[in-house]
Amino acid sequence: MTDLFSPLAIRGVTLANRIGISPMCQYCCGDDGRPTDWHMAHLLQRALGGAGMVMVEATAVLPEGRITPGDVGLWEDAQIPSHARLAAAIAHAGAVPAIQIGHAGRKASRAPAWVDEPASPGWEIVSASNLPMGHFAAPRPMTEAEILDLPAAFAATAKRALAAGYKLIELHGAHGYLLHQFLSPISNKRNDRWGGDFEGRTRLPLAIAAAVREAVGEEVPLFLRISHTDWIEGGWSTAESIELSKRMAAIGIDVIDVSSGGIDPSQKIVLGPGYQVPGAEAVKQGAGVLVAAVGLITEPEQAQAIITEGRADLVLLARATLRDPYWPMRAAVALGRVDAIRTPPQYDRAWGSIARMAMRVETGAPMPPLG
Hints:
The chain is α/β, with parallel strands linked by helices. 34% of the residues lie in helices and 15% in strands. The protein contains 11 helices and 14 strands. The strands form 4 sheets. Strands 3-4-5-8-9-10-11-12 form an 8-stranded parallel β-barrel, surrounded by 7 helices. It has a two-stranded antiparallel ribbon with strand order 1-2. A two-stranded parallel sheet has the order 6-7. The longest helix is centred in the middle third of the chain and has 21 residues, at 144-164.
């Protein structure tokens, strides 16, 4: 039976288990967009904790695509070495190094999440239309030329990600950021070929996905994060998510990472444990694709049931692993699957003695210089 600790093979990459670390923005880069030692400490801890995959936070494909001035970027080759440090450390700890790439659109040029203000200094923001996000500044509608340039920008960033050593790439099409702004009728009021009906609103995300698949080749897994619903009447819907997922799968997207919301403050989200899992299950059944489930998944038994019941193929955790980077090890103990996870030998005195976990001897060797 497939369970939380079963391996998952996707194209040329195999995850040791079905637990992944979701991208979590840290808002603490310099203006150059390069990851810092904070990112190293944050992500290495979670890789050592036993997750099969660790995904770097939303990484901007263009400078103006950052959410904040402290966002990670990969819009130029000079940023590759700092990312290579992260990818090498995550891999050394035994996890698959992954990265999410995106553009914030009308949610760009903000201060860090804990400061509800515009960035200072800020920059011009763009979107599908000129509609602001709540009390944020109104964006400028993108020109045809700017839209046509975006697939190449995403593809170039994906190539840099591979050069840095990442083995898996996710496109960010959720949470009210630029791709979602094109998908949703709440934010996309264009009357050209990039708006209007479903065909128009999905045109840009599909073009970006196709460009990235061509850029990375056939062996690299590609994920797409979507908001399966806007939680707003007349907004993007789960039915549209299913149809989009079918089309994305046809051009080479391997996993749909199913989240929800984020397009407008008027959303009415019904929160509860695993509240987004029904969306993941609907996409999995309706589109016939691999899916990742996210959102208030906190307990090992809960995550196990999502996998064993076939509701999703992968569970991505965020806040639970901020509280406990070693959540996968604790889950292995709770679920009686210590046979499926290996602890760093440096931590054997903590885990080996109580759970009889095998040691991951590779982690005991000197870590390669990270530059």
